[in-house]
Every structure is written in C-alpha cells, then in structure tokens.
Amino acid sequence: MKKLLVMAIAGSALAVSCTQKGIADGKITKAESIAQGKVIFENSCGKCHDLPNPKSHTDAQWTGIVNAMAPKAKLTDAQGTMVYDYVTANN
Ligand code: HEC
C-alpha cells in the first residue's frame, strides 16, 4: 500500500518539480520529497556510473554517499535531501 502511494505520487512529480525549494520552507510532505527525489535521482545519478540500487546501502551509508555525490551531481542541499529520502525509502 505504501509503495503504491509513493508510485502514484511519483507519477505527478514532474508537475510539482518547480516547487523543489518548498521543502526548505517545510511546505512539501515527506511523500512529495520522496517522489521528487526519485526524479532527481534518475536524472542526475546515472550520468557518471549506472544508477545505484537503493538497496545496496544502508541509511547510514547513504548519508555519506549523498553528501559525497550531491556536489558531483550539482544538486542543491534540498535536492540532495530529496534523493536521500527517495533511496532510504526504497532500501
Ligand atoms: C560527476 C560524476 C558523478 C555523478 C553526477 C554522481 N556520481 Fe556517484 N560516483 C562517482 C564516482 C567517480 C564514484 C566512485 C568514486 C567515489 O566513490 O568517489 C561514484 C560512486 C558512487 C557510489 C558507490 C559508493 C560506494 O561507496 O560504493 C554510489 C552509491 C554513488 N556514486 C551514488 C550516486 C548518487 C546517488 C548520485 C546522485 C546524487 C551520484 N552518485 C552522482 C561519480 C558521480
């Protein structure tokens, strides 16, 4: 059920992607952050290597990886948080 909800929201992520900075103001929900994170992840994290499998790392490992990779992918802090929310919702 949770997965289905996330997928349903992910379908509408493109429509809300112009509101990315909303999370910094606390205006977007965790589910929206996960959905936007999926889009950012798929667009930004497969450029230099294959898209990593979220299941390949623990939450703690993802913290360090996103900190290291977000600058490589030229993401803002808010976008990095969304990617983190997405991968740790699916690992
Ligand atoms: C500019 C190129 C580039 C981009 C964009 C990039 N990466 Fe990487 N990534 C690398 C390189 C180079 C390595 C291997 C060396 C290293 O760990 O720094 C790597 C390694 C990794 C690893 C393996 C780390 C490990 O400890 O096994 C993961 C997972 C990863 N990247 C995730 C991501 C995610 C998530 C994003 C999007 C936010 C991303 N990468 C974007 C270049 C990139």
Automatic annotation (TrEMBL):
Organism domain of life: Bacteria
Residue ranges constituting the Cytochrome c domain according to the UniProt record: 32-91
Coiled coil: none
Gene3D superfamilies xref list: Cytochrome c-like domain
Entry keyword set: Heme, Iron, Metal-binding, Signal
Signal peptide: 1-15
An MF annotation (GO) of this entry: metal ion binding
Transmembrane portions of the chain: none
Name of protein: Cytochrome C
